[in-house]
Amino acid sequence: MKRFLIAGIGNIFLGDDAFGVEAARGLAAEAWAEGVEVRDFGIRCLDLAFALDQGWSAVVILDAVQRGRQPGTLYHIELDPASDIAASPDGHTATVESARAFAREMGLTLPPMHLIGCEPLTVEPEFDREGLSPPIAAALPEALRMTRELIAELAMEVTSV
Prior knowledge:
- There is one protein chain.
- The protein has four helices and five strands; from the N terminus they run βαβαββαβα.
- By secondary structure, the chain is α/β, with parallel strands linked by helices.
- α1 packs across α4 and α2 (45-51) crosses α3.
- The chain has a five-stranded mixed β-sheet with strand order 2-1-3-5-4, sandwiched between helices.
- The protein has helices at residues 19-28, 45-51, 96-105, 134-160; strands spanning 4-9, 36-42, 58-64, 74-79, 113-118.
- The protein has one domain (4-160): HybD-like (Rossmann fold), CATH 3.40.50.
């Protein structure tokens, strides 16, 4: 049986950095085919690193991604598991690069990975409001749709091999 992990990461206390966590929460409330797991890793980068080595056919990471575009811009980035990872492992932040670096340093096998990212408005502590900023909240339904479509595509690709 083919298995897929959808992993939300981010810090809920740093504004739009909570994008991945909120996206995972939304997707976890949906019904998924057998073999698809949705998990909220929050800032537990080491837990994610160990989870990457659990025989997944593919992993989809949901995260805030700063690339200098308009807040709310969504990205689909296919990550090359064989590429060099520039980030050093950091147990106090949750980034795709940190999780991959941890996994590599421990000699774990990285599965095919995809990133569904959203350009944040702010990743600063937000004490005067709860939740995502308006442009990121508005992008969330589209990010969920992109994730559902990506899982469907990956399931078809893997099945046809």
